[in-house]
Amino acid sequence: MRDVIYLDRMEQAETLLKPQRVEVLRQLAAPRSCTEIAEVLDQTPQRVHYHVKKLVKAGLATQVSERRVRGIQEGLYQAVARSYWLSPHLVGRIGSRDELALGHLVDLAEQIQADVAALDRSSELPSVGVSGEIRVRPEERQEFLAELQTTLQDLFTRYGGAEGDAFRIALACYPKGEDR
């Protein structure tokens, strides 16, 4: 089972965004049959089977084995991940995105989600996360943003060669909100 699956196809999102299916998917944290899930959720096995088949078709669950019960083959199913992230691009883009627009941050966050979801998280990976708050007077905003951009560009230039491990650097700088 993977830690995270990044969903970027509309049919996957549509399959997942049904409350009953989410409950079925939660029950599939460990391999289970439709009959077992039906008992827990107080549903009929046929109704659960319908939802499980939709989850399997969308790639959100998989059949992991079969067993013989009272003369019939019964499938055991399991979720393919512990978490499912929906891509913001499923809603679509509205307007243009330039580097200084808040919409660019949404695109950046989406890229980070996709990158992290694609990582093999079976071992410890070198990474760093930094968060902080900087207070800048309105008349210094442009100077601050220009200096920040220059500092990062210097790092990209110094370490941007073709040799070594590739790392993605993403920095988001935005107004904090209510307490500006």
UniProtKB/TrEMBL annotation:
<dbReference type="InterPro" id="IPR036390">
    <property type="entry name" value="WH_DNA-bd_sf"/>
</dbReference>
<dbReference type="InterPro" id="IPR036388">
    <property type="entry name" value="WH-like_DNA-bd_sf"/>
</dbReference>
<dbReference type="Pfam" id="PF12840">
    <property type="entry name" value="HTH_20"/>
</dbReference>
<protein>
    <recommendedName>
        <fullName>Helix-turn-helix domain-containing protein</fullName>
    </recommendedName>
</protein>
<dbReference type="InterPro" id="IPR011991">
    <property type="entry name" value="ArsR-like_HTH"/>
</dbReference>
